[in-house]
Amino acid sequence: MIRKLRFIYCAELLIAALIAILYEAGLIAEGTLAGNDLRTYWMSIVGIALTIVLVPVAMRLMKFKRVNNAVAQDEAAYYHWSIVRFALLGLPLFYNTLCYYLLGCETTCGYLALMVVVAFLFVWPSMDKMEYEREGGMNNG
């Protein structure tokens, strides 16, 4: 199970890296949505909102009472909620990475994508982490 979670974790980061590589190599044209300040503003606002809302939710997901109870009772629930966590982090990562390049290297979106990558570092799946979260260790903090 941990191997599957690690595969999903790495796949999300690799897909974001692949997007960046394709744009940086010039295989996909950068800035196709650049030039409209209002569109840039709203796309940046959406990226900020996704990051501000989803990253903290993903980081504290296992502390929510319903999730914590489910995870404590069933190992399969841990797998399920870990995938939900990766999806919560993946959405702002992909959105901000794409917006960075679509808007012609809009730095706000680039910084937001980097913040999500840093958040990913804190959710690396491991047996120790799974045991800790399943034993309710998250309830103490």
Biggest sheet character: none
What is the residue-mean pLDDT, rounded to a whole number?
A: 90
Query: Helix and strand string, N-terminal first?
Result: HHHHHH
Terminus-to-terminus distance: 26 Å
Tell me what the structure shows:
75% of the residues lie in helices and 0% in strands. Helix 3 packs across helix 4 (75-102). It is elongated, with a radius of gyration of 17 Å. It is an all-alpha fold and 141 residues long. The model has no long low-confidence stretch (mean pLDDT 90). The protein has helices at residues 2-24, 37-59, 65-73, 75-102, 107-121, 127-134.
What is the strand and helix layout of this fold?
Layout lengths: L1 H23 L12 H23 L5 H9 L1 H28 L4 H15 L5 H8 L7
Helix pairs in contact: 1-4, 2-4, 2-5, 3-4, 4-5
